[in-house]
Design goal:
- It contains two helices and four strands, in the order E-E-H-E-E-H.
- With about 80 residues, the chain is an alpha+beta fold.
Length: about 80
């Protein structure tokens, strides 16, 4: 795949195809590792920092568990 280098402020940048960002789970602000190799530059995905916000990103109406706290109130002894 061929991409072009473009000016980005005082730096240069490339655009990463959406297919790859989806494959590696990259979003705006994702951290990746750059390594220089004999063949060129290697981009390596880093494990995302596990936060509540990160975990909730994939939550949808369809994948939520149906159990609610109200289901257990009758079983609680005080």
């Amino acid at each position: 795949m061929t991409v072009h280098i473009n000016k980005w402020g005082n730096s240069l940048g490339i655009r990463i195809p959406i297919e790859w960002t989806r494959k590696y789970g990259w979003t705006s602000g994702s951290a990746i590792e750059l390594q220089e190799t004999e063949e060129g530059i290697l981009l390596k995905p880093l494990q995302p920092k596990i936060t509540l916000a990160y975990l909730l990103e994939g939550m949808t109406e369809e994948n939520q568990h149906p159990i609610q706290i109200l289901d257990f109130l009758d079983e609680e002894t005080w």
